[in-house]
Design a protein that fits this description.
The longest helix is centred in the middle third of the chain and has 11 residues, at 223-233. The chain has helices spanning 10-15, 35-44, 119-128, 153-161, 205-213, 223-233, 266-275, and strands spanning 5-6, 19-23, 26-31, 46-50, 55-60, 84-90, 96-106, 109-114, 136-138, 143-149, 173-178, 181-186, 195-201, 218-220, 280-286, 297-300, 303-314, 319-326, 336-341, 344-351. By secondary structure, the chain is of the alpha+beta class. The two termini are 40 Å apart. Helix 2 packs across helix 6. The strands form 4 sheets. Strands 11-12-13-10-4-14 form a 6-stranded mixed sheet. It has a 6-stranded antiparallel beta barrel with strand order 15-18-17-16-19-20. A 5-stranded antiparallel sheet has the order 6-7-8-5-9, with helices on one face. The chain folds into 3 domains: 5-52 and 141-233, Gyrase A, domain 2 (2-Layer Sandwich), CATH 3.30.1360; 56-138, 2-Layer Sandwich (Alpha-Beta Plaits); 279-351, Aminomethyltransferase beta-barrel domains (Elongation Factor Tu (Ef-tu), domain 3).
Length: 363
């Protein structure tokens, strides 16, 4: 535990008696009042998450001329200023080094937001693909990130931080001032609810946390509820549902890959598209309240056809749900499966995503 990094909010989490645990090399809050209670609060009100562990890189320079355009599976120069785009950093076999979001801050300036556990490797890989690596800076240590998510989050943000936040549409952001410091407020999140991601200097994170929690509509939420919320939406989690052995095509995320442009891994994806995927991601729903777990076996007609990568009990659906990878013949909607681990067996069925469709995401 001593080797784990801590966010600027560690003392606040301990004061709130949060259950702390390792995540991606960081000591993070897993729950406060309880995972189910925090999940419910986010679906109904506004939940506040400490996401300061995420990584941020700043690129300033000629996007195309200095090589950034060909680093990701999407066009960076094609992102309008004030918008962001989700996609992938791939290896030469088409495997996902990381899934990330790029924010177009200006004509020659972008911010790249990456997963916590992959910060050092991502920075090394991206730098190696640029003509002038010095144009890329790791600003993670100086950047704080808080996420306010839930159907009441807009009301809270407007009242506490300014009316200019109200009109921000989905996957757009504004550069503004918060608590006297430069900040970015983005209409994005990982919960399926209306929400905002707030980037500001790390030394301001505690002050903003305290300000938001003074509002009775806001409660702190940990990574446990965040994982449950994202799973109900079918969002992939890096390290579970995505890694360097999995391609975006096999993960069903081809819509975030532009095969009309150049990027590392493109040739492998073109070959995969031609030959077909060996394994494909599915979503499944369990016919009971039992929860499938990571690494459980997936069986069809008594034969093992794949593995669970994410699973949980869904409070919104009152049953177990999960994601996993199976052979293509087991991936059709309606396919009957059995999820198995030792003596535990549960019947399941392949279903469409998202599992939960009642969120306020685009509200």
């Amino acid at each position: 535990m001593e080797d784990l990094k801590a966010t600027p909010l560690r003392a606040r989490h301990e004061e709130l008696k949060a259950l702390m645990a390792p995540f991606g090399g960081w000591l993070m809050p897993i729950q406060y009042a309880g995972i189910i209670a925090e999940h419910k609060w986010c679906r109904e009100k506004a939940a506040l998450f400490d996401i300061c562990h995420m990584g941020e890189f700043l690129f300033q320079g000629d996007i195309e001329g200095e090589g950034l355009e060909n680093v990701f599976t999407f066009s960076v120069k094609g992102i309008p200023v004030g918008r962001s785009r989700y996609g992938f950093l791939l290896n030469d076999k088409g495997g996902v080094i990381d899934d990330l979001i790029v924010f177009r801050l200006g004509e020659n300036e972008v911010m790249i937001v990456v997963n916590a556990a992959t910060i050092p490797n991502d920075f090394s890989v991206i730098s190696s693909r640029l003509k002038y690596p010095a144009k890329l800076r790791d600003i993670s240590a100086g950047t704080g990130k808080l996420d306010l998510q839930g159907p009441l989050s807009r009301e809270v943000m407007v009242e506490l931080l300014g009316a200019e936040i109200g009109p921000i549409p989905f996957f757009k952001f504004i550069r503004t001032r918060i608590l006297g410091a430069d900040a970015i407020v983005s209409r994005t999140g990982y919960t399926g609810e209306l929400g905002y991601e707030i980037f500001l200097p790390s030394e301001k994170a505690v002050e903003l946390w305290d300000l938001l929690l003074k509002d009775p509509r806001v409660a702190p939420a940990g990574l446990g509820s965040r994982d449950l919320l994202r799973l109900e939406m079918g969002y992939s989690l890096y390290g579970n549902d995505l890694d360097e052995t999995i391609t975006p095509l096999s993960a069903g995320l081809g819509s975030f890959v532009n095969l009309e442009k150049e990027f590392v891994g493109k040739d492998a994806l073109l070959k995969e598209r031609e030959l077909g995927e060996a394994m494909v991601k599915i979503a499944f729903r369990v016919g009971s309240r039992r929860a499938p777990r990571h690494y459980y076996q997936i069986l069809m007609e008594g034969n093992e056809v794949g593995t669970v990568t994410s699973g949980a009990f869904s409070p919104m659906l009152s049953c177990g749900i999960g994601l996993g990878y199976v052979r293509p013949e087991a991936a059709a909607l309606g396919t009957k499966l059995v999820i198995k681990q030792d003596r535990v067996e549960m019947e399941a069925e392949v279903v469409e995503l998202p599992f939960y469709t009642g969120g306020s995401l685009r509200g």
